[in-house]
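queue> pop job 88
queue> type: inverse folding (structure -> sequence)
queue> payload:
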């Protein structure tokens, strides 16, 4: 599987709303496989299709916390609870981190690679990863939500 080029801040695809996947084809599955390979190669915990230049609503996530690899097509957050603040970074914004407020718990629904609807209740780091990757599908980068860089308010 080829490792895909990760698009960096400034690339217009990162600021565009991704299009829903209307049919899961061999090409879709190949893209997912290549995204997974790219995420692991880059030592990331999540990757959205726009980050590899494809304007489709697909994310892959593996936080390394034991839940394993999660692949979602057309994911959406259907419920949130609580709030917390945590430092984030992004493969598309290399060398930058910042504190971002996000929901501490989320319920996400989407399709798995077989086209079956799944719902995942997540909290902590996994909830944060889902929110971060789904933001990418809406043209939003974590830097748009940063509340603190270092100790200075922005």
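queue> result:
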């Amino acid at each position: 599987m080829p490792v895909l080029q990760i698009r960096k801040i400034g690339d217009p695809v990162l600021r565009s709303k991704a299009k829903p996947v209307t049919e899961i084809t061999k090409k879709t599955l190949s893209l997912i496989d290549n995204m997974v390979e790219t995420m692991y190669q880059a030592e990331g915990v999540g990757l959205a299709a726009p980050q590899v230049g494809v304007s489709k609503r697909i994310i892959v996530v593996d936080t390394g916390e034991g839940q394993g690899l999660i692949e979602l097509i057309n994911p959406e957050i259907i419920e949130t609870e609580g709030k917390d603040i945590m430092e984030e970074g992004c493969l598309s914004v290399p060398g930058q981190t910042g504190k971002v407020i996000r929901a501490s718990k989320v319920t996400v629904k989407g399709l798995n690679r077989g086209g079956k609807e799944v719902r995942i209740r997540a909290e902590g780091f996994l909830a944060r990863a889902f929110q971060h990757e789904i933001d990418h599908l809406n043209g939003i980068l974590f830097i748009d939500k940063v509340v603190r860089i270092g100790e200075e308010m922005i």
